[in-house]
Every structure is written in structure tokens, then in C-alpha cells.
Amino acid sequence: MPKDTFLNLPEEKRERIENAAIKEFSEYSFDASSINRIVENSEISKGSFYQYFQDKKDLYKHIIGIIADKKLKYMSPILANPFEQDIFTLIREMYVSGLNFAKENPQLLEIGNKLIADPSNPIYDEIMRDNRKKSDEVFKQLLKKAVDRGEIRQHLDLNMVAYLLTILNISVVDYYLKQRDIREYSQDMMEIVEKFIDIIQHGIANEGGKK
């Protein structure tokens, strides 16, 4: 978390520092990013930086928080009345809103892409662990309602299903980027999403029995 000295800065100065950090983290991986470039581009001293943040990781996690909050705003219309749609439609619409976010925020998208591309980095596990808990809780509530409406089987381990959906969401994005060998999303990502939802909804068993 940023220190109070940062939070109490005038908005213009806070945004200047945040924009410099976004530029840096979108162009470089976490390990390759430089505090020196960030302070130079934000026009502050290095001493001031450490008055505002504990270290580079502290700033990075702050930027990830900004990304999460902004992405949530794209999903707010969907989540405003989440129980009016079946869970599979909700998951599909979450991806549609995610695509809109990605198209309109390419720098923020690239920061996320760089994070996903380096799962062996300790910062990856630390950030994903924090965000998994929030995602798991959202999915768990949606799954409970889906059980009540008869959309999914009863007696499922909803904690496990919520956890798997969170992991699979991340994996679908990684799969798409690697299959296309690109660093941005386009509408054809929905083809991958539809296949993903089909597997969730229908499984992989042969419904007609063994052949």
C-alpha cells in the first residue's frame, strides 16, 4: 500500500507518478523495470519516491490495484444484477467486458500480459494469491445461486469449482495469447471463450456413452 504521504499528494502529482509507473511497467517486466526511470518521468526525486512507497513492489502492487479497480468498472453493469442471468451467460459477459477493457486500455493490458507471461516470478504468485481470494468469493456466490436455480449439479464442492474457474480464467487468456502469438486481444478471442464455456457447461465426457 502507498504511504499516506502519497495519498495526501495533490491529484495531479499522484496521477503523474502513476502514469510514469504505468508507462514503465507496460514497457518492461517487473524485474527489468527501473525506479530511476519512473522518478525521472514523474519529475520527482528518488528520495521522494521512498517517502511515497516502500519499494518498487509496493508501487507495482498499487498499479495492479488501479488496473483491477478500472476493470471492475467495466464489469459493474453485469454484476449489478448478476442473478438475473444464468451463470454461463454471466461468464461470457465477463469476458466481453474484459475485451472492452483491453481494447480501451492497451498499456494496462500489457502490464497484465507481462505478469501472466512470467509465472515463475515470486511477484506473480503474490499478486495472484491476493486476487484469487476476491475472484473465488465472487464465483462462489454465483455458483450458489446457480445451484438454487438448477443450472449446475447439487453437491458440488463449490469452493473447489470457484477456485478452478479463477485459475481457468487466467489460463484461457494465456492460451489465447500463446496460440495467436500476439500481445493484444481482438474479437476472435470470443471463439476461445465459447469453447471454454462449452467445456465448463458440458464437460468432456461423451454424452452418448462409450463407443
Characterize this entry briefly:
By secondary structure, the chain is mainly alpha-helical. Helices cover 73% and strands 0% of the residues.
Mean pLDDT: 88
List the uncertain runs. none
Helical coverage, percent range? over 70%
Annotation field: number of helices: 10
Beta-strand percent range: under 5%
Tell me the number of strands.
0
Shape verdict: elongated
Order of helices and strands: HHHHHHHHHH
Instruction: Please report the distance between the alpha carbons of the first and last residues.
Output: 57 Å
What does this structure look like?
With 211 residues, the chain is mainly alpha-helical. It has ten helices and no strands. Helix 2 runs antiparallel to helix 3 (35-42) and helix 2 crosses helix 7. The termini are far apart. The relative contact order is 0.09.
Element layout with pairings:
Layout lengths: L3 H4 L3 H17 L7 H8 L3 H7 L3 H24 L7 H18 L1 H11 L5 H27 L9 H23 L8 H14 L9
Helix pairs in contact: 2-3, 2-7, 5-6, 6-10, 8-9
List descriptors.
211 residues; mainly alpha; 10 helices
